[in-house]
UniProtKB/TrEMBL annotation:
PANTHER family, A to Z: COPROPORPHYRINIGEN III OXIDASE, RADICAL S-ADENOSYL METHIONINE DOMAIN-CONTAINING PROTEIN 1, MITOCHONDRIAL
CDD domains to which the protein is assigned, alphabetical: Radical_SAM
GO MF, any single term: 4 iron, 4 sulfur cluster binding
Gene Ontology CC terms, in alphabetical order: cytoplasm
Native organism: Deinococcus ruber
Domain Radical SAM core, first and last residues per copy: 50-288
Pfam assignment, any one: Radical_SAM
GO annotation terms (biological process): porphyrin-containing compound biosynthetic process
Protein name: Coproporphyrinogen III oxidase
Length: 475
């Protein structure tokens, strides 16, 4: 693993990777879940009453997706379960209710800033199931302020006007639609059966009902050209949709795209061209860039509201309570705490495991990780980089250290390569730096990943030594 403790070393590392395909290695913040090994604790253990961060969000997970050929839409790396029949939904809602009851007393005073219902594909639910799900959520949050943003995600062809009306009538304020491609031929590579008309019809219904709306598109798709991308964006902007998430395909794991379509992927140079072409096109269409991937339509005279996809712009402590299959909770310690950096947890990633722990009356946590202060700083730094700038004063206030000094060689190397501008008040990404956020994040985490990896293998060696010693002592 490279040592990036000098500007020349950091610059060499960055320059070496500038021409490689980007891989987002921090989907679950920092560090990777492969290091999450704690099996003894859970959210209620590390966040007892009276220890809440100043703000929080709630994530509610539904695991099911339509079965596709190739599986997982060809590219998805998130844990999901194949949808077979409506009985699965009822069984899962029953389990979700049992998990929620374990939080009831703890959440009496909780006031989430936002609620996101994700998955999976939550709009697989039938019309009559949305009142049950949403009443379940609101029933556990008696202190929830009226008008709290509630987003529900899904796929285009499963949104109907009746479903959207049921969502709105029971508190959903916004939908997030995973279209990924509008070109039917490109979409079929993922095994998905949607048509462009499904996307535009759902956008129209959402506007009619007064629901906010986001549409996800992916660039860097197999066989995709800049012309495909421009046509999709132009058609989507013409629909009047409020928010567009336009993100780069993450190719990895044992997915169909990684195994069978690598030779059909646009080159790294062409993918970069797509990013800048899209950013320019969206700006011309009146969309303000919030993150490397998120663009919000600027409404004249309208006050900017909270958007779930917009990343945090300070380092103040902020909790994430997660509820359901494979859901990830995050509990950073309050600022100035030097004891530890907080905790993150992942719920069970298979349904038998999830249901089994609930049947035993337990919180369905699969694994957890106790962050060190260094881990916490990196985790929050990654989220702030997504917001296109780093507030150095907020970092100093919360951690009593200077972020410019802490990662000085990497910042200087990035500045020399035109990825960012450094001032005493902020580190601001250039347009090129916004595109290179995954690379900057990977450079920043190199030293800490090496420490964690060495500690992990030291524990394995120690455990093996204890086993060998036990064998030697046996009669």
């Amino acid at each position: 693993m490279p040592n990036l403790n000098s500007v020349p070393a950091a610059r060499r590392y960055l320059e070496t990777n500038l021409h490689q395909r980007q891989v987002n290695k921090v989907l679950h913040s920092f560090p990777s879940p492969r290091f999450w090994k704690d099996r003894e604790r859970g959210p209620l253990d590390v966040r007892p009453p009276g220890t809440d961060a100043p703000s929080c969000e709630l994530y509610v997970a539904l695991p099911f997706c339509l079965v596709t050929q190739p599986s997982h839409c060809g590219y998805c790396l998130f844990p999901t379960e194949g949808y077979q029949n409506q009985d699965q939904l009822e069984v899962y809602l029953n389990a979700l209710e049992r998990e929620g009851e374990q939080y009831r007393e703890r959440w009496q005073a909780l006031e989430p800033r936002s609620i996101f219902i994700g998955g999976g594909t939550p709009n697989l639910l039938k019309v009559h199931q949305y009142p049950r799900l949403l009443n379940m959520i609101y029933g556990l949050l008696p202190s929830l302020p009226p008008g709290t943003p509630v987003t529900l995600e899904g796929i285009p062809q499963l949104f109907s006007r009746d479903k959207l009306l049921a969502m709105k009538d029971h508190g959903v304020t916004r939908i997030s639609m995973g279209a990924q491609q509008l070109d039917a031929g490109l979409s079929r590579l993922s095994g998905r059966m949607q048509q462009p008309k499904h996307v535009f019809q759902a956008v129209e219904w959402a506007a009619e009902l007064g629901l906010g709306c986001n549409v996800d598109l992916i660039y860097g798709w197999p066989q995709q050209t800049p012309a495909h991308m421009r046509r999709d964006l132009q058609d989507l902007m013409a629909s009047g949709v409020q928010h567009i998430t336009h993100y780069e395909l993450n190719v990895g794991g044992a997915t169909d795209f990684a195994l069978n379509h690598r030779d059909e992927l646009p080159s790294p140079e062409l993918v970069r061209e797509m990013y800048f072409g899209a950013a320019e096109l969206l700006a011309q269409g009146g969309y303000a860039q919030l993150t490397p991937s998120d663009f919000q339509k600027v409404e004249p005279g309208a006050a900017p509201g909270f958007v779930y996809e917009e990343c945090r712009r300070s380092f103040d402590a902020h909790d994430v309570w997660a509820w359901g299959y494979a859901a990830i909770s995050d509990f950073p310690n309050h600022h100035h705490s030097q004891e530890a950096g907080g905790w993150t947890f992942m719920n069970q990633r298979n349904l038998p495991g999830y249901y089994g722990l609930l049947n035993d009356g337990k919180i369905p946590v699969e694994c957890g990780y106790a962050r060190s202060p260094a881990d916490l700083r990196l985790s929050l730094l990654f989220r702030n980089l997504q917001s296109l700038s780093v507030d150095t004063a907020s970092y100093r206030h919360n951690f009593e250290r200077d972020v410019l000094e802490e990662f000085s060689p990497i910042w200087q190397a990035c500045a020399e390569l035109g990825l960012l501008h450094i001032s005493p008040e902020a580190i601001r990404l250039t347009p090129e730096g916004a595109y290179r956020v995954p690379l900057i994040q990977t450079a920043l985490m190199q030293g800490r990943v090496e420490e964690i990896t060495e500690a992990h293998f030291a524990q394995l060696r120690a455990a093996a030594g204890r086993v060998d010693a036990g064998r030697g002592a046996a009669p």
